[in-house]
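Hi W.,

Here's what went into the run:
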Amino acid sequence: MNLSSLCDKLAAILRRDLLTAIRYRTGFMLAATGALAELAAFYYLSRAIGPGFRPEGMGYFPFLLVGTGFYTFLVMGVHSFLAAVQEAQQNGTLEVLMTTSTPPPVLVFLSAISAFAGNTVNLVFYLVVGLLVFDAPLRPNLAGCIVIFALSMAIAIAIGIFAAAVQLATQKGSAVVWALGSGAWFLTGTMFPVAALPKTLRYLSGLIPITHSLDGMRLALLQDVPFPVLAHEILILALFSIVLLPSSLAIFSYTLRRARLQGTLSFY
Amino acid sequence: MHSVVLESVTKRFRHRPALFNWMGRERTGETCALENLSLSVPAGKVLVLLGPNGSGKTTTLKLISTMLLPDAGRVLVEGANTLKETDSVRRHVGFAVSTERSFFPRLSARENLEFFATLDDVSRSHRAQKVDEVLALTGLTESADTLVMKFSSGMYQRLGMARALIKKPSVILLDEPTRSLDPGSAVHFWELVRGLSTQGSTVILATHNFNEGVAVGDLVAVLYRGVLTGLRQLASTGVDELRSFYFRSTGELQEVPEMAVRSVS
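Here's what came out:
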């Protein structure tokens, strides 16, 4: 498959998702209102705690803004893979999609890129509102932000493909999203610094790639640190990407073939 | 030259009960959907698959389309093995899945078709024209810009057919394609299927309708409990003759009550 065909397919998927989203008219308004309410809650929470609390040397509101914004972006990204498979199972399009000329892994990948595009819009909205309305100070190292963002996205894609594979195999891919969203979020330093955790949990926290994504993004976006300071987080994220991406693709291909053999492709 | 070949194909579905099966009565064991099925369909011919519910008709179509993979034996489409050359098979096969649950409900018929055409590698320059063509062929031009969630069952069936045709496949699979169509539309549809065959496409059509079988078929295969029990040419065969062949092949007549026997004969 050449690049032009790939871009054409991506455009078709983006158009499908955009059209579907805007035709759920109230969905847009609810999402925007929800984000504003969340930002207001964080703003007043940080004011209530007071300016004396400066986790990792930065104000608490920007700490929360980047932590929750980027964490939500990554978890929603993972969820989007699962949702792509789940929705296709529920609306009956999965079997048909899997018989088009587009190979299934490419299809899942493109669907998720489309979902990531939507999540990126949400993230930018969240950060811009936080910056303009609630006056969060940003001091970005733009190149560092882009590298951390790209590596984090690669990891979220890998975990998302794994969640899609779990959905095909067990019809319960939501377990992966639950593990990230509810089971592990307090370990990742989203709302308070990891340093506040006991030693054992700090060790576990280091094994979760999102912890390094948040650390790296805060350093790059709020403190304008140079690349040598970011190198540690970049290296860890790169290692996670190299291991997770090919292994999740292999697992997805295996579970897809197994579902075709067992006749469970459309089960949900 | 045969477009589709099934060689000793067996397909079983295992019933894996829930962990706490004592709380319910979920079925265990396995269902044999197809047993050692061998069948060849010559290029440009229409094969009609007949058989009672659960006889393996849809499973056969799904195996040809690569939605399912066989447990034993092999399926070849235009010489490509569905187990090993899936991408090649998918380029050749169009499957008219016509249930309401196979389209994007908040896209219009045209938008759905454009989307699937893109995934099926229909070139950008020809896409709009191809979409218009298949909409016209299936009588959906007037409803082209209606969201498909507002469609009736019959319109979904037409749209399913339109989607299957858009990539101009050499093998077309139709699963009970006229189930929800009015009699006039069904006759129009039969003409369409004959036209596709005349143009060289191979069609495999699963149905319960003997009139449909006689109207479009070149060959008929009867499946009963996953086994091929009858296969014959359909040239100049009448509806009564086909019905009689079907009941002889399935042996079902002995199982139906006397009143029903009177009505079919």
